[in-house]
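Project outcomes to date are best conveyed with an example. Our students and postdoctoral researchers have been running inverse folding experiments weekly, and each run begins with a structure described purely in tokens. The record below, which covers 264 residues, was selected by the lab manager from last quarter's runs and is presented without edits.
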């Protein structure tokens, strides 16, 4: 499956880091490519940067969300665009997808960055949230203010509601543009981790970035990380939770820039 991609790059050849691999940004659950715009614009001052909509998200086609198939989507898309090998950076669900791509197609990944996600099963309320969204009754017409009020009964977090709002078609006959049915049906796989990955490993440079206050990446995951990604390093962002790139954007941008060798 070919994915929708937003691509940016240096405005002039003189500004580009010649021969440097492109950077690929992979969003998390309920996200989309344009969520990564802050980082894409800044990294694109020197690098070719592609932000992707994973399947059932953004403007990409919908389909069952199993990580091997999603990794095949990403591989097909990057190869078609001549964007390999690439530095692949993913957050949350996008981090799992990025890890699976690196493990199954290591020749396509020059470096791997995973933001706040371990190579392990994770479940922190997303399945219940997705089911509530699927069964949310829609009025005949809907404004953004009305949609925010509608979602307030489902999530008290304004950050989460802002993420969800981008997936709603507003106006007359409102509805979800995201593949919510596919997401709900696939949630055991989204929150899981493919057992087949335990027989693989990625030997390239890899960096895990964890939020200090996040429940996702924990000490118990380090042994698995050592086995699957023997070259990995770990950075903990103090004072940040799971949405570390949104909570600490300048710090996260510096971490990414340092990892890919981008001069500030």
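After processing, the design step wrote out the following sequence:
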């Amino acid at each position: 499956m070919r994915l929708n991609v937003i691509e940016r790059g240096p405005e002039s050849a003189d500004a580009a880091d010649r021969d440097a691999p492109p950077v690929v940004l992979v969003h998390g659950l309920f996200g989309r490519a344009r969520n990564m715009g802050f980082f894409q614009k800044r990294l694109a001052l020197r690098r070719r940067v592609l932000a992707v909509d994973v399947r059932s998200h953004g403007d990409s086609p919908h389909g069952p969300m199993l990580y091997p198939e999603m990794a095949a989507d990403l591989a097909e898309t990057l190869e078609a665009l001549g964007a390999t090998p690439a530095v692949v950076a993913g957050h949350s669900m996008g981090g799992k997808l990025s890890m699976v791509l690196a493990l199954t197609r290591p020749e396509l990944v020059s470096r791997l960055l995973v933001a706040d996600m371990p190579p392990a099963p994770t479940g922190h309320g997303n399945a219940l949230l997705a089911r509530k969204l699927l069964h949310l009754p829609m009025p005949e017409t809907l404004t953004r203010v009305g949609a925010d009020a509608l979602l307030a009964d489902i999530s008290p977090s304004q950050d989460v509601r802002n993420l969800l709002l981008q997936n709603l078609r507003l106006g007359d006959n409102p509805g979800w543009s995201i593949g919510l049915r596919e997401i709900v049906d696939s949630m055991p796989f989204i929150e899981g981790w493919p057992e087949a990955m335990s027989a693989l490993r990625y030997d390239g440079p890899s960096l895990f970035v964890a939020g200090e206050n996040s429940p996702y990446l924990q000490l118990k995951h380090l042994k698995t990380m050592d086995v699957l990604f023997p070259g990995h390093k770990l950075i903990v962002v103090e004072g940040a939770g799971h949405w570390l790139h949104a909570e600490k954007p300048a710090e996260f941008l510096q971490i990414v820039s340092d990892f890919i060798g981008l001069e500030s």
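The longest strand covers residues 109-115. The chain has two domains: 5-122+193-260, 126-184. The training component of this project remains on track.
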